């Protein structure tokens, strides 16, 4: 019997909060980026065309190109435990960033762009050329994202997540400066201002991320004991490929959504509102998305499972309540109309659509909790399976919407994402049970919580 005096304490909620809040603030600040861009573009000439070009073509395509390196944040958090592992991950990051940048250029500067935008996405003719200009401006996007997320993972691993929040604040400040200059000049097209501000902001954050990580590399990572067994490239690929496939599939649904919206009633209006309402949903989801890295970083601690699960439940309730308040009160009209500057017709579309996305912020918390457990146990295949189910479900709903041709594309798209996310969460719940039993058994073997008898 292990005595209460010698048993490991339960993971304190305060420690969870200290790890989570800088990441949550970082994600929330990133989530405000798209509303800020939309608010400026909506007040410039031809707002529907430029909003649709940015949210319906440029942003989804940029996300697809960068998708293989999005999970570098989680991979770096989970695996950057010693110098040898860090070096392998850094080599992969540099090569992948270069390859994706070349792919971005191939699409932007060759006739391949017209095939993707016109044939695959089926974007309205009036947004194809503006979107191409914007996509050209976004060329450094993938490498900047890869470098930044890789460094941030190291910071989170060594519990320096405050630096992540500072970097995001720098990014948002840079975005605000460029958007303000563009609005005051008022002669540049909205798509140029939107993409110019976005890429400048992302690059500023990437450059900053290379500074606070240096003391960690010098004083902690280089001195860390070698991991046994050592991380091999084959083991890394086995861990990372399912994650990369996860991000690819989850982001592939974005241009598929744009293609579906382009083929349903009110295509231009739906594509114009799509990035605006998506940004609000993501602002609330981001607080749950940030929890993924918290789980990965802290689940190693004894008696962590109970505390992390309790925090996840509280966060789920809070975000669901926040979404309900936004949808059910005049706050949504204030946000879409007064803050973002949408026309009354587009504001009404956005307010109605918000109800269809009601469960999504809460589901983001559950998804992060389940995925964090699977990453910790290195059972990443279940994450890929879940996102494949999300994609299949979402695409099926959108195909049905195109076939029926009755409902507006915005409403079909939001319904598809909500149902798909719910199915993804259910599958993750099924796959995570083995990992949860493993961590619970580990907690039990480390002794009872202080103040409790071993029989408890």
Approximate helicity band: over 70%
Which shape, going by the Cα principal axes? globular
| Major sheet | none
* Percentage of residues in DSSP E strands: under 5%
Number of helices: 20
* Total beta-strand segments: 0
The residue ranges in which pLDDT falls below 50 over 5 or more consecutive positions are 1-6, 448-456
Average pLDDT works out at 85
Quick take:
The protein has 456 residues and is mainly α.
Question: Strands, helices and their partners?
Answer:
Blueprint: H1 13-31, H2 33-41, H3 47-70, H4 72-79, H5 83-109, H6 112-120, H7 125-137, H8 141-157, H9 162-185, H10 190-209, H11 213-221, H12 233-262, H13 267-289, H14 291-298, H15 304-328, H16 331-339, H17 344-354, H18 360-376, H19 381-404, H20 409-445
Helix pairs in contact: 1-9, 1-13, 1-14, 2-9, 2-10, 2-13, 3-5, 3-7, 3-8, 3-10, 3-12, 3-13, 4-5, 4-8, 4-14, 5-7, 5-8, 7-10, 8-10, 9-10, 12-19, 12-20, 13-15, 13-17, 13-18, 14-18, 15-18, 16-17, 18-20, 19-20
Identify the notable features of this structure and list them briefly.
globular; 456 residues; disordered N terminus; mainly alpha
